Amino acid sequence: MDHEEEKLIVDAKWLREHRGDGDLILVDTRPAKEFHAGHLRGARHFDPFPFHHTDTSERGVAEFGAQLEWIFSALGITGRETVVFYENESGMRAARGQWALEYAGHPRARMLDGGLKALGGEKLTTEVEKFAPTDFQIKARVEILATYPHLLEQLGRREVQIFDVRSDAEYYSERVRAKHGGAIPGSYHQDWTSAIAADGTVKPAAELRAQFEAIGLDPANEIIPYCQGGYRAAHAYLALKIAGYAKVRNYLGSWAEWGNRDDVPREHPRRK
Question: By CB distance 3.0 to 4.6 Å, which of 105, 147, 174, 271 could disulfide with 139?
Answer without folding.
Answer: 105
